[in-house]
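Review form for a predicted model. The reviewer records the input and the model, then writes brief findings.
Reviewer: anonymous (R2)
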Amino acid sequence: MRFTFFNDFLALVFPQTCAVCRSSLFDFEELICRSCQVQLPFTTYHQRPDNNDLALKVMGLTRVGRVMAFLRYSKKGVSQRLLHQLKYRNQPEMGVLLGKMYGHELARNGYKDTWDGIFAIPLHPAKQKRRGYNQSMMFAEGLSSVLDSPVRDSLLRTKFTSTQTNKSRMERIANVEHVFSLVTGTDLKNKKLLLVDDVMTTGATLAAAANVLLEAGAEQVDLAVIAAGK
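Model under review:
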């Protein structure tokens, strides 16, 4: 009883607010109010996953299957605001929530039991130590909880790379060459995998990581991100 009173007191003094519109959340809402959830800039890439502009971005860089994004990315838009909170405002739970939301959408469209495992683009250990978590792994965990595909953490980032921001397409490709590897003994032979990241710009990072999985024997690698722009 005392614990409940204390929680109610905290909620009164420090109300939880929606990450999008800043209105107070009801007890049954998590991070994003229901009104804002239905107005998120959703995409339909999962309905045409091998024939869209994202697939064209990675063509020639890797031989992946489906390429999908949950939200459309736009500067100063809702998706950028959510990603900023996920990456820089210490809100790993935002990644999990977005993963669950997209997982439900994928399940409704027949994707449940599609993948043998889900990989997240890893951060360099030094960067993850500073941030405290890998935002892409949070997205993967949300997806996994809905799609019943296990998260695999055997993909490693072995080189510290400078930020991809403000780099040209060719510079981005060169920046992530030979960056990723797998834990010794990882068996991916004939596996169908989903590789996820927070955002796709040119697709260079995802393509480099996907090639490592394919070279290790994966039968198919599909890509999914929280947000991507054309």
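Findings: Residues 96 and 141 are 6 Å apart (CA to CA).
Further findings: The chain has nine helices and seven strands.
Recommendation: see findings above.
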